[in-house]
Structure formats: C-alpha cells, structure tokens
Design brief:
Length: 329
C-alpha cells in the first residue's frame, strides 16, 4: 500500500507537470493512466486482506462498511470540488492537489505498525516454506482456491457480466453529461458526486443492518434494480433526474458490494485472503478495458455521424438560400 501510494503520487504529479508544459499528448496520457491504475490495484486487495486480521469476525461487516464509507466520502469531496476547481482554476491544479493526497496517504500508512500486516497466528494452513514464494506462485494459488469454490466461481461469472456493462456505462458518463444533459465539467462532477453520496448512504445502511444471511438475495435484487436504473438514465435528458438515478445506483452498488466482501473475508482463510482478492480483482476487471474501449469507440462513431449530419444540414441550408436568391433574382 505504501509503495502504491508513492508511485501514484509521482505519476499524477507528472501528468500535471506535462500538462502545464504543454507536453502531454494522448499516447503519453494513456501510458501514465495505465501505470496509475495498475498501481491502484494493489491497494484494495491489501486493505481487504488486512481487515480480518485486526477485526473480530462479528465486526467484519461494520469494519468493511466503514472502509467503504471513508472511500465514498472522499469521492464526494473529490468529485464535488474537482469539477468546480477545473472550471475555476483549470486542469493542472487538481492534478497537483491529487498528488499531495497520495503523499499524505503514504505518510499515514508509515505510522501503522508493520505487525498489523502479518498473518494472524493459527490462520495459516500450510507451514512456512524454506524458499520465498514468487508473486506468480501466489497468484496461481489464488486462482486455484477460486476454482475450488463454487461460490467464488459464481461470483466471477456474475462480476464479469456486471463489470463489462458497468465499465462501458462509466466511460460514457462524461460525453453523456456534455451531449445529452448539455452540461460541462461541473455537471460531470455533480453526477459522480451524487453517486458517491448514494454510496455513503449505502455504507451506513449496511453497517447498521445484519445482511450476511441475505447476500444472495441482495446480489440478485441489487443487480436487477441497478440495471433498471441505468436504463432510466439512458432515457433521461433532465439533470435533476439523472442526479437522482445516479444517487440510487450508488446506494444499490454499495449494498451489494460490501456484504459480498464480508462473505469472502469470512469464507477465505487468513493466509489466502490477499492472494484470493488479488486474483478476484484480476478476473472481475478483465472485461472492463474491452467494455470501456467499446463505449468510447461507439461514442466516437456517434460524434462522427453527428458531424456528417451537421455538414449535410449546412449543405441543405446553403442550397435553400441559393434557391431563394434565384427566385428573387
């Protein structure tokens, strides 16, 4: 977690510097975003793996809800203020500020005792090996554990479908805010902010309710209702309706994700949690790049079609003017 935050701080700061110098082209941005998001993937599995080691089993739901709550509160502040800062101060300033937040996170992590990251005694299923285990071996162990669990296999199948369509929708939010709602960076930030506020409410609800016995029903109902809400957003051109539906998605998303995380933490042995979470994240997000690229390509094609239609309209308008002038002549 410490190394990941330091890498992300450097990458985000470099993006801001290159943008300020006018040297940030699209290809460089793609490479830096790849490095940035690759580093981010190390944080969540590590956090989810450390929570059971410092929390009693009956408090897992509350602890995971608090972690989700803190994440959502940060998103509310980031998305809400970010859009306004971009409009007021330009693009570069938020990058510098974001870089400082990663450094702050690294400083806070450095104050945590390293012993909290150790596997609790009695949870390790196998004796310590005489030679260090490579990352590849740990990753394969996580995949084997998932393959041997019917529950985890079902989770991967559902997650692949949900993430495939969810990533595509998320990629289209920015052009949706601009082209459909008729807004700007502030509009985009407002949509993401209401989503995060919904996630905060969902985290509070999950922390208050004992939902471990209803995880399957919540997953099924949550996915179905989220799909219906997303369809509603697709037909919405009014900002306040889009904000209300975005809020609903945030509530539903959290009320599905947190109980599922708690169930995994309760079912997977402590010495396998980090490996299983890492493998799960890899499997669940493998479809996201394809979906995001498809959404972006589809939007690009729509933009080109709009340009062609605009040119055709201009040509028709010009012909009409010529006919009017000829008639008066």
């Amino acid at each position: 977690m410490l190394a990941s935050n330091l890498v992300q701080a450097a990458v985000v700061g470099m993006i801001g510097v290159l943008y300020s110098l006018g040297s940030l082209n699209f290809l460089v941005l793609l490479v830096m975003l790849f490095v940035l998001n690759s580093g981010a993937q190390f944080v969540r599995p590590a956090v989810q793996a450390i929570i059971p080691g410092i929390t009693e089993k009956e408090d897992l739901s509350t602890a995971s809800s608090l972690f989700s709550l803190s994440t959502s509160v940060n998103q509310v502040a980031g998305y809400g203020i970010g859009g306004i800062i971009v409009l007021a101060l330009g693009v570069a300033v938020p990058f510098y500020y974001d870089s400082l937040t990663f450094l702050f996170a690294a400083a806070m992590l450095s104050l945590i005792s390293r012993s909290l990251g150790a596997i609790p005694k009695g949870l390790a299923e196998s004796p310590p090996s005489s030679h260090p285990v490579s990352f590849r071996e740990k990753f394969v162990q996580g995949l084997r554990f998932i393959r041997g669990s019917k529950f985890l296999i079902q989770l991967v199948i559902v997650g692949l479908v949900v993430n495939f369509f969810g990533a595509g929708v998320f990629a289209l939010l920015a052009p949706y805010a601009k082209n459909v709602i008729g807004g700007n960076a502030g509009t985009y930030g407002a949509i993401l902010t209401t989503y995060s506020v919904g996630a905060v409410i969902g985290s509070v609800l999950v922390g208050k309710l004992q939902l471990r016995n209803y995880v399957g029903k919540m997953l099924f109902a949550g996915v179905i209702v989220q799909g219906l809400v997303i369809v509603g957003i697709g037909f919405t051109t009014v900002l306040f309706l889009a904000l209300a539906l975005s809020f609903a998605i945030g509530v539903l998303q959290t009320m599905v994700n947190v109980p599922m995380t708690v169930l995994i933490q309760a079912k997977v042995p402590g010495d396998m949690l980090g490996r299983v979470f890492t493998s799960l994240v890899a499997l669940l997000t493998i479809a996201s790049p394809i979906s995001s690229a498809g959404g972006g390509f589809g939007n690009f094609n729509l933009d080109r079609r709009d340009v062609r239609n605009l040119r055709r309209t201009d040509r028709l308008s010009l012909r009409s003017r010529i006919l009017v002038l000829q008639r008066f002549a």
